[in-house]
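## Example pair
The file below holds two records. Each record gives the amino-acid sequence first, followed by its structure token line.
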Amino acid sequence: MEALTTLKSLIVVLSLYFNPVTPYEDNVTTTNLPRDIAEDAALTTVGLIFKYGFPVEKYNVTTQDGYVLEVHRIPKPGKQPVLLQHGFLDSSATFVLMGPDKGLAYILSQQGYDVWLGNSRGNRYSRKHVNISADDERFWKFSWHEMGVYDLPAVIDFILRKSDFPKLHYIGHSQGTTSFFVMCSQRPNYNSKILLMQAFAPVVYFFNVRTPFKTLLKNSLDTMSFASSTLGLYELLPNLKRLSNFSQTACWEHVQTHKYCSNLLFILAGYNEPQMNMTMLPVVYGHIPAGASIMQLIHYGQILKSGVFQQYDYGRLANFLRYRTFEPPRYNLSRVTAPVILHYADNDYLSAPEDVETLAKQLPGIVSKRMVPMRRFNHIDFIWGINSKELLYSHVISNMKKIELGR
């Protein structure tokens, strides 16, 4: 029954996606939705922040290897900076799209923080390079390894220079935790620039992943690698105008197909319908997927298959030429000395409690780990859950205040 639900949801959500499309346009609206919902589905992150009356700034940050990342800010000059980093196929919008009362970025701003929102290379806001076009296959030759080695360090250095602070708070969701642990293991000097790292649904180990896509991903690695290298399929699910239009019709709670939109999220993340604001589904699908490299997905698949948190596996010969070893080097988590708090959930299909425990034992800088006290809390509730403010964000802010006071 679950397999049938998975298949139906995929067919409905992706049927229009793979038709001929045009690039996403920021002013897409339709008339079949309430005006605010249609507008929020179409606005950019900057547009959303401005609409709800918060100050907003936009910066371009260039990485050491030439990628141009768009960084968003809800400024409070002179206040402690905090960097929020999104997950796979997501963007900075994830922290604001639920509105001022529910969005973590707004809540932190209201608490007096200088809030910065990152965008990983390849998503809708970071599709530029100083020398290479996003239409060039070479642009997409990256995984979350490069995000940890190049993207996060560049953004962190930019924020600290701009704010004139020696350290910042870091909050990452899903892939935003993976890239952080890569950064601190590969470039350990960045540990000293982190006041406190709080991980939402940390993704490092996959021994206990429960999503039905686990087997599909593990068994499709060779196919995906072939498609990427031979067929030139290197960009994964970019943000497109047709999908945005679809989200504003098929995902509206007053049409029958909206259940497939929610089911697809639940199949990936864990079922918890009471925490999903169904009215906001068109907004969610207006902003995700936000685009990625297929190598990011392949890299996760490799970790799933091998059970080892290691660098990208290019094949034995290519590995030897790149790493001087036939197997990819492992990430040394003993070098992650920054203070870390792990937030996890019992019903998270992608970040199981057992896997979080495995990670926690390897982090010398771990301060604590906390399971969100709701049995059905899932992977996406960390960012969009109706009660996340009370169940999670209040504790996150308390942790930040405590470490600032040296407790």
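Second record, same layout:
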Amino acid sequence: MGARRGDKMTLVAFMQAGSTSVYAGSWRHPATEHGYLDASYYAKVGRQLEEGCFDLMFFDDRLAMPGIYDGSVAEAVRYGARPVKLDLGVILGILAQSTSRIGLGATYSTTYYAPFHVARTFATLDHLSGGRAAWNVVTSVNDSEAQNFGVDAHLGHDERYDRADEFLEVVGGLWDTWDEDAIVHDRGAGLYADPEKVHELGHVGRFFSARGPLTVPRTPQGRPVIIQAGSSGRGREFASRWAELIFTGDPGLEVAREHYADQKSRISDAGRDPDSVRICPMAYAVVGESEQHAKEREAALLEDLVHPMASLTLLSELMNYDFARHDLDDPVTDELIASVSGIRGLVQNLRTHIGGTVTVRDLAGHRATLLQGPRFVGTGEQVADQMAEWFHGGACDGFVLAATHMPGSFEDVTRMVVPRLQRTGLFRTAYEGATLRDHLGLDRPVARRPIAHTGPAA
């Protein structure tokens, strides 16, 4: 059965395999544990989230140090602006062994990986985790990443999504090259698998070719879950076609309601059941033993821990634009908006969030502090009630929770917020199934017989 509005809330933990969480000042937080180079650190966080019955933990990724600001990685290294990013395949392998129920997801780029590689990686993870794999699809275009992968020229915005559409077709086709019952294991007859049930893909397209079959049999989930976070019009269309969990970044309730309605309508227009797709904005939860304690925690996070240079470094990386040519208090003009790809939506969100003139400092703070999504502040009960308002108010199907410090943020949520959500019937008290699709209420897809695609080669 597809996920239905009014059912249980989805909770996803937004992870980074590195020195800081998505909040750039987290490494300076006095309660942060600097264990990110130790396997036991990730195992500990995974078990903690599993105790809180989270649906999924997924890892963001970037394939370069931030190096666009002033043409150097120096500021990223100096101020800890996410200079460390570990290989997610290894991290997920650790978590597959140390957890048993929580979903495990990772970001893999359609720009810097091949479809066969992605298909094999996530099919392998799905088997080794017992059906808990998810792939966060990104169409990354960033000069720092390109310079690590020998990419000289990027495709335009819409063409990038055209390429990603074909990428998903190839990956999905490879996942379907094994029938459910292909493996026989008939020792007496010497028959390992039925060759009539293992199929070549034979894809030759505009961007990719892949013969197949995949070297990994059909997985426990049929296919790993697809996550996507496109926010532009073309990105929303892409998500409507492919995504099963959509990750958004809406700063306020009204904006989130509009985004939710628009995205669900697009999913319907794409011929899919809107109730079969979960839409979850990124949010921060700042939880205290009292409301005053929570507000004091929030003030420290907003004012004390993120250096302005870390903010500008991350903003430059996000926008693929060198902000070293601007002062922090320069206003964001129409000329600047027109010259920087991807900045328009961010500026519009900020104008909604803070009102008035938006400065470079505002933009940088949005990227590096706690302004990227809703921020729920208060006691455990107050935070749970704030989350419930969004959930019942037609703004989301749950949340992707980001950490202000690690692992304490998730400890706070599992200890103080989750019990309140459970008492009010909004969140599970135990896992009812074994796979991520079970947790999300998603059908197990039926294998489609691969059909050779031969249409124009690149």
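Notes on the second record: The chain has a mean pLDDT of 90. The longest strand covers residues 278-287.
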